[in-house]
């Protein structure tokens, strides 16, 4: 038989496929083990990840301060600077909401009346009356009353989650303090624990991984701030109420690839529709969509450069897989983790010379009936 091994009679393609299959099974088992171990210490993993994020964002600030002061003092001042920026942003958002809440409530009520009138007397092929809306509201109130006990139980259960969140943040800040103050010494100590023969690969992998992770983290922060600023300018020019909180929502959405920006756009359009009408809502949607295009085609190549070079299909698959695995948290951390893995893989692999697109497609001709082999044209 053509292509068969002379010793056991098993076709070569079957032995090759079997070898690839068991290697893939071992690889999948290892990945599954990593995910299982991570899920058992999810709080610890999240805390360390946030600590790395804080380190990547604040390290340039700490390096700047350390030029004129001791490293511990520069670390404390860098963390304080980051906290003040975050607290100032939260205070400004809260002040904007409190200052415009009364006007927004009135405009929102007028907008709801306009929407109801459109649904009842508009050109749609169906109509929804006030009586139907009132019936739906009554049904919703009845459902809440019937399930009040279950909802209270869920709220009580979520109290533990709030404690876990604050615990993770405290641990993340604690780790970030040491990463910023003595990160180089900690990495050197770790490398020194390894055998001399494997130190160079670990140094290469660590350097490539941190370069990509820090580049992605700082880049996404710059992009998010820019998106939020542009959204604030757009919403202020159009006259949409609560422009500052909506701009912060756009800023937060930038941290979730593919999902965050559309979600923020829909919320901003709803507020604009309720307050200013359908025309302004359409302008808001178009403007934020243009901001997204500006981000994807100008900001990301300019800010991140070659530090993060993932195909959009890979980003979509990573975000989807992260969301299915760990919800919103998985969607946020999926892309940087995949970027780090790809950077390390690219650093070690030695690819063969690339083919041209026309060379990658094999034009298979008719099969020769005598020997069963395909002839190529």
From TrEMBL:
Compartments in which it is found: Cell membrane
Alphabetical UniProt keywords: Cell membrane, Membrane, Transmembrane, Transmembrane helix, Transport
Annotated region described as Disordered, given as residue ranges: 351-377
Chief location bin: membrane
Topology of this chain in the membrane: Multi-pass membrane protein
Transmembrane segments: 20-37, 43-62, 74-95, 159-181, 220-240, 246-274, 281-303, 315-345
InterPro entries: AI-2E-like (IPR002549)
Keyword Ligase: no
Compositional bias (Acidic residues): 355-377
GO BP, sorted A to Z: transmembrane transport
A GO CC term attached to the entry: plasma membrane
Family according to the record: Belongs to the autoinducer-2 exporter (AI-2E) (TC 2.A.86) family.
UniProt name for this protein: AI-2E family transporter
Native source species: Cellulomonas pakistanensis
């Amino acid at each position: 038989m053509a292509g068969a091994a002379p010793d056991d009679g098993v076709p070569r393609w079957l032995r090759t496929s079997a070898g690839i299959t068991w290697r893939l099974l071992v690889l999948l088992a290892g990945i599954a083990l990593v995910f299982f171990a991570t899920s058992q210490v999810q709080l610890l993993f999240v805390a360390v990840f946030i600590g790395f994020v804080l380190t990547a964002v604040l390290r340039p600030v700490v390096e700047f301060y350390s030029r004129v002061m001791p490293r511990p003092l520069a670390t404390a001042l860098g963390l304080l600077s980051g906290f003040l920026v975050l607290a100032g942003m939260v205070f400004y958002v809260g002040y904007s909401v409190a200052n415009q809440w009364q006007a927004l409530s009135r405009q929102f009520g007028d907008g709801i009346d306009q929407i109801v009138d459109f649904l009842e007397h508009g050109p749609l092929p169906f109509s929804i009356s006030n009586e139907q809306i009132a019936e739906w509201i009554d049904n919703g109130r009845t459902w809440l009353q019937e399930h009040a006990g279950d909802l209270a139980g869920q709220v009580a259960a979520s109290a533990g989650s709030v404690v876990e969140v604050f615990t993770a943040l405290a641990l993340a800040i604690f780790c970030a303090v040491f990463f910023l103050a003595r990160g180089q010494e900690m990495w050197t100590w770790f490398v020194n624990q390894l055998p001399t023969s494997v130190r160079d690969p670990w140094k290469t992998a660590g350097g490539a991984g941190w370069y990509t992770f820090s580049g992605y983290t700082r880049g996404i922060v710059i992009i998010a701030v820019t998106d939020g600023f542009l959204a604030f300018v757009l919403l202020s020019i159009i006259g949409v109420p609560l422009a500052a909180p909506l701009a912060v929502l756009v800023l937060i959405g930038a941290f979730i690839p593919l999902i965050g920006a559309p979600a923020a756009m829909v919320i901003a359009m709803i507020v604009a529709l309720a307050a200013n009408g359908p025309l302004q809502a359409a302008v808001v949607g178009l403007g934020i969509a243009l901001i997204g295009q500006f981000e994807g085609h100008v900001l990301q190549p300019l800010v991140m450069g070659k530090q993060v070079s993932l195909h959009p299909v890979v980003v979509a698959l990573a975000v989807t897989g992260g969301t299915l695995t760990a919800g919103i948290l998985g969607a946020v951390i999926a892309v940087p983790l995949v970027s780090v893995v790809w950077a390390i893989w690219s650093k070690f692999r030695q690819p063969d010379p690339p083919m041209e697109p026309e060379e990658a497609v094999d034009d298979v001709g008719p099969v020769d009936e005598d020997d069963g082999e395909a002839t190529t044209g």
